[in-house]
Amino acid sequence: MKDGSVDRLHEPLLQPSKTILDPQVEVKYDATTEDLQHLDHDDSVYVPFMQSDKYLDVSLRNASTTAYAKAGLFSKCFIHWLGPLLEKGINKTIVKDDVPLMVPEDRASALYNEFSANWPKQQEPNAVRGTLAKLFWKPFRRIGLIALVRLAVLFIGPVLIQSFVEVTGGNEKFKYEKYVLVIGLFLAKCTEVIAAHQYNFQCSRLGMKVRSSLISAVYRKGLRISSYARQSHGVGQIVNYMSVDVQQMNYVVIQLHNVWIIPGQVVLALGILLYYVGISALAGLVVMCLITLSTLWGSKKLEVYQRSIMKGRDWRMRSTIEALNNMKIIKLQAWDEIFQAGIEKARQAEYRALSGYMWFTAFNIFTLWLTPLCSCLAIFTSSVILGGSLTASMAFTTIAIVRSLQETLRVVPNTLIALTQASISLARLENFMWSDELKENSVERIPRTEDVAICVEGGTFKWSDELAVPNVLDINLHVAPGSLVAVVGKVGAGKSSLLNALLGEMLKISGTVQLSGTTAYVAQQAWIQNGTIEENILFGRAMSKPLYEKVIRACALTTDLAQMEFGDQTEIGERGLNLSGGQKQRIQLARAVYQDCDIYLLDDVFSAVDAHTGSELFRECILGALNGKTVVLVTHQVEFLPVADQILVMRDGRIVQSGKYDELLIGGTHFEALVEATNEALDRVSQHGTEAEKKYGEMHPNAETSKSFPSDDEGDKDFYPQHPRMVGSPSPREAFDIRTQGNFSTKLSQQEVNTVKTEGSPRLVIEEERETGTVRARVYWLYYTRAYGGVLLLALLIVQVIWQGLQIAGDYWVAFGSSGAGFDVRESKKFILIYGLLAISCGIFVFVRTAIVAIMGLVTGQSFYLGMLRSIFRAPMSFFDTTPSGRILSRSSTDQDTTDVFIPVCGGAVLAFGFQLLGVLFVTVQITWGICFLLIPVAVVYYKYQKYYLATSRELTRVDALTKAPIIHHFSESVSGFVTIRCFGQQARFIQLSIDRIDSNLRMDFHNQAATEWVGLRMEMIGILFLCISSVIQVTLPLGFIKPELVGLSLTYGMNLNICLYLGAWALCNLENRMVSVERLGQYTKLPSEAELEIKETKPPPHWPDRGTIVLQNLKLRYRPDTPLVLKGISISIEGGHKVGVVGRTGSGKSTLILALFRIVEAAEGQTIIDGLDVSTLGLNDLRSKLSLIPQDPTLFDGTVRSNIDPLEKHTDDEIWGALEKCQLSEVVRQLPGKLDSPVLENGENWSLGQRQLFCLGRVLLKRSRILVLDEATASVDSQTDAVMQKIIRKEFESSTVVSIAHRIPTVIDSDRVLVLDAGRVKEYGSPSSLLNDPYSNFSSLVREYSARSKSHVDLAALQ
User: Fold this and answer.
1) Can you tell me the distance from the alpha carbon of 463 to that of 1248, in angstroms, rounded to the nearest whole number?
2) How far is residue 723's CA from residue 624's CA, in Å, rounded to a whole number?
């Protein structure tokens, strides 16, 4: 980390709230100085982005604060303050808004401020650990005092056993001693219980504060991290930082005090034992030490396996996120099974480590359950050997103390596991938190001047210090305010890198970069948020209706919104899944225009739009709305260049030419080569376009194709500056302007928005499914019968019964064996032998029990995961359109982790404590039968409390799970668009959104933990009451009525009654809460499925299709049952081997036609027939694997060059090199150190967009299908590369059927047929010549416009 790169972390997240006044809305936002550094403009238009944001959780602003804030000492001690929420939970189903906020000092914003204030200014080891220690040392110390109080009274109960035995034997030391003993026992146990639950609650609260601080810090870091460092931390890995590593830090807080509590309890217990049994106690201590050493060895192994688990989980989550983000292309390419197998492979690596982890956990549990038995056996044996007397009081005092230690030692594995996991998580977080950040001084913001808007002098940049060669170098650039600067160059020339350098996203090696004013950025790959179109355009700014409507028109969105049933209230799916590429591009362009910045950096915004829309965008937006703004436009559209004030030609990261259009047209230059390639393409268009234009002129003698057409809105004059219109427009804009009555936006009331109507709903993303009420019995049945049909559960019950019986038998043997006055040698051996056999038998069954729990957990967890994974991969695309990936990821991470580890442990604990409770009651009632009259009322109270608690806790757990997913979703969405967020200076708003989500989630966790301690405290009090009443009965009965040794046995068991009641209830309630994870996984194991991948009965011949004939008959398609038709009766026939170009306005249904052909969406009506076979009868893989596609959004995956170009691993190296040669990538790949095995990062981030497109071409060259579909395959490449790609496709696929969707007219002008789509209908279909012969045809109009706008710089000069 370079100096200064982390200084910004010291800035508090919240400055005093800055209120921004608006006549209608007032919302307080909290922003850092740094987050507002770009907002220093004196014009109010730069600040309103903080005024109104529909993404904010308004319920948090209106929510009350938890009653804990004003609770008194008594209320806090007994958690009485939680009563109103529990009362509400018993009367209704708890929802998010019912739960109050945490106290102000526990909220995310305040905690992050403290965290950042304590973060070191320079990098130092263990910074995360040190900062947490500084921040939370005081509350941690207070919790330690509570633990000390509990430790002080912990052994009072066991110590009193001897006195109780003596009193019942008639040895009363003073009058009323028996009542004093009962009162002392009651007070000691009450103090212990209250301290224990306060300790648990305060530890949980502190853990939540640690979690909140770290999530905020990780999110903040994610917004600061440099673009190159981001490649080292994939989205999946960062999600794991938040969902797994931070959770481990939360959990370790609860265990941390055990580091001194456990040794303290051992020392105290040893002192008491030495007092009562003498030197024999050391034998028990030796056994404990030996077992502890074996546990430590097991814990070392656990650490190794835990590292492997985290590594496997990172791999699995990374693969899962990559698959979810690219599910459409995976299905189109029939790669479902490959990617599913890849995730399963990652899971298998995790599962192997998890298996070792669970087995060693089982070993530790076994050794610790064995500890009291072996320790008591050692003490008794030693006492007998040394000639000591073994009395009932001594024996049961020993057993009680050792069992008290057992509860302590039982947490040793958990503590060691937590410390191990926390150590690993700390190292991972440390590594991430010190990752390289964006350098503050890369770009200098200067005051507005009339001379310069952008100034770069001697600029050399690279993505990271680790790179030997700069990516962009020797940049000298001076741009005057209001200039239009075009940047051109071949694929990989460094055009996008130049924009990133201007944004400060690259590491500046030398030179200066100065920008005057605020900056807007439109990325080459559109970044769209999940929300309505309106919310995406406003991007947090308050609504200005006149400005908003003019932006809509300037960005050519009017027609699109008019065609959408709900206009701009239509909800956009995650990553814009339900929008075309052109619509996504124009929405993010509208977002930038609406922000009204000074400098606009636009990265190839015309690549995804058609010629009509491109002309309109350039005219109305670039030359209109942005007139007077400084615009730097990266483009491959050479026809727009003559109007640019300056053109930059890039090659190999350098600006090799700079000047105006005329100045650069010099023979032999790079620019001349680019223009020449475009002219060659235009020549082909002109051959057809001239004749069409001539016919159009004959029929319209008064028409002047070089003149502008009238504006459709005179009211735009105050928005669009006066300038000449784009030349050559073939028809008035009204011809493409479909309007609705009044406004284009169909506004709905909130009630209408929330109601699912038969004609559709604006909401695309459906509410997450949530069960209510008790977790159904079928969920438990589903879990416990998933592994071997429930046989393991039956075996576990049998083993548990035998084990509990053996334990009780051993204790009874001690009672009867120690009842005599003393032992002779023979009796001593017999006593020790039988007790030893019972102990060993008990140990064996403990081992069998832990083994069964481990096997059941592993098999069941794996079964659920694979079932969910396979169900997700078989789900139709509509599922992914309507389901945010955060929901799937939360199930794949948190819920799966719970199912893998916690549910087996909780399930085993329920059985263990349940049977222990039955054992305690059996012994107590058998000895003191009168106590049985208390059983029924105690059971009723126990049940009522549990039911009262569960009604709220269960729903809090469900809402907690629902509120976790938005944290992950918001984070992954933010990481994807962090360049855009930083450019617009919106870090403060997005941080506030993150804080809202964290607070919303943690308030559920906080009250759920409080509810757990509330019920636990009351359960233990019931147990204490039961114990004390039993004790009173035993000490008040006549002498000899109960044998003293049985009183000792009863008290030994009774001492554990309160903890058994609590732990039994806790384990049962915790199991039910954890079962929510099974419930959620179960929902995703039964998702609706696509058609079968393979159908043997209708499997096509091996060489099908051999001709490539495609017939569409009345094809109608809608995306989901409740949505309108998108394709409205398409009927065409494509001859085998023909080349068909598909054109039409953006959103006309071109890409949807591809989805229909590949059956990504099933047809509502009609047929698609390929070479005589109805594709609806075929298996999906049989169909999709026979077709080839180059998609609109080129996709590369984490792997190597080889795995990306040949995912199926079917081709030799020679074949791969041949394909790379043809697609112009071989030279680049040969220069890489690893050649074909060179790495490709997630999303292909180390390759330019154009290079990714060439990779996609290489794939189809290897596959060589009879039918090839091109979806804007050359949109992201320059004219030269486009010409080469078209030449390769014509040559290599000469005999194949090629269906090409294109916005570039030269791409389709040589086709055999042209299909013109409009609003989902066939507008025209025929040969290019026949369509051009009709001067009124849409295609003729399109060619005329393209030809006219590209004629020459002489005609275009008028635009200046």
Assistant:
1) 13
2) 7
Six-digit token pair at 364?
């530790």
Residues 1072 and 1131 placed together within one structural domain of the fold: no
The tokens for 860 are 């069941």
- Judge whether 1009 lies within some domain: yes
Helix, strand, or coil here: 603?
strand
| CA–CA distance, 985 with 977 (Å, rounded to integer) | 12
Query: Could you count the other beta carbons within 10 Å of the beta carbon of residue 741?
Result: 5
Domain of 1246?
1192-1264
For 1174-1195, give one letter per residue: b (16+ CB within 10 A) or e: ebeebbbbbbbbbbbbbbbbbb
Closest Cα to residue 636, out of 607, 601, 594?
607
Task: Say how many domains are in the chain.
Answer: 4
Whether residue 127 has pLDDT greater than 70:
yes
| In a shared domain, residues 502 and 647 | yes
Angle separating helix axes 791-817 and 336-385, nearest 10 degrees: 10
The amino acid at 1071 = L
Is the separation of the CB atoms in 457 and 512 below 8 Å? yes
Both 1056 and 1197 in a single domain?
A: no
Q: Which of 901, 1221, 850 is nearest to 1074 (CA)?
A: 901
| pTM, two decimal places | 0.68
Q: Any idea which residue has 């084990």 for tokens?
A: 803
Among 1070-1074, 1100-1104, 1354-1358, which range has the highest average pLDDT?
1100-1104
For residues 837-851, one letter each, b for 16 or more C-beta atoms within 10 angstroms of the residue's C-beta and e for the rest, the string is ebbebbbbbbbbbbb
Q: Domain containing 875 — which CATH number?
A: 1.20.1560.10
pLDDT of residue 631 exceeding 90: yes
**917 and 1051 together in one domain:** yes
H or E segment at 1133? strand 1127-1134
Q: Which residue in 370, 261, 356, 238 sits closest to 303, CA to CA?
A: 356
CA-only gyration radius of the chain, Å: 37
Helices (H) and strands (E) in the chain, counts: 48, 26
Same domain, residue pair 1336 and 1246: no
C-alpha closest to that of 201 among 1021, 1072, 894, 1007: 1007
Q: What are phi and psi of 747, to 5 degrees?
A: -85, 140
CATH classification of the domain holding 1244:
3.40.50.300
Nearest C-alpha neighbor of 1303 from the set 1346, 1256, 1340: 1346
- Which residues neighbour 537 within 8 Å (Cβ) at sequence distance 6 or greater? 548, 551, 552, 568, 587, 590, 591, 594
Percent of residues, the chain, with pLDDT higher than 90: 7
Amino acid making up residue 68: Y
Same domain for 604 and 657, yes or no, is yes
Say yes or no: 1016 and 1141 in one domain: no
268 token code pair: 């105290």
Cis preceding-peptide flag for 1105 (omega within 30 of 0):
yes
Q: Is residue 162 part of a domain?
A: yes
Strand ranges, E, within 533-686: 571-572, 599-603, 630-634, 646-651, 654-659
In a domain, residue 270? The reply is yes
| 8 A C-beta contact, residue 991 and residue 512 | no
H/E stretch holding 1176? none
Residue 1185's closest CA among 570, 338, 397, 35?
Answer: 338
Token pair belonging to 259: 């580091």
Is there a single domain that holds both residue 453 and residue 402?
A: no
Task: Retrieve residue 679's tokens.
Answer: 């002219």
Query: Looking at the DSSP assignment, which residues form a beta bridge with residue 101?
Result: 65
Kindly report the backbone phi and psi dihedral angles of residue 1318, in degrees, each rounded to the nearest multiple of 5, phi listed first: -145, 115
Predicted confidence (pLDDT) at residue 974 exceeds the cutoff of 80: yes
Nearest in space to 536 (alpha carbons), one of 483, 580, 573, 484 = 573
Q: Which of 1004, 816, 991, 846 is nearest to 912 (CA)?
A: 846
Q: Which of 39-53, 91-105, 828-842 has the highest mean pLDDT?
A: 91-105
For the chain, give the mean pLDDT: 78
Residue 1286 lies in a domain: no
Q: Render 407-433 in DSSP notation, one character per residue.
A: HHHHTHHHHHHHHHHHHHHHHHHHHHH
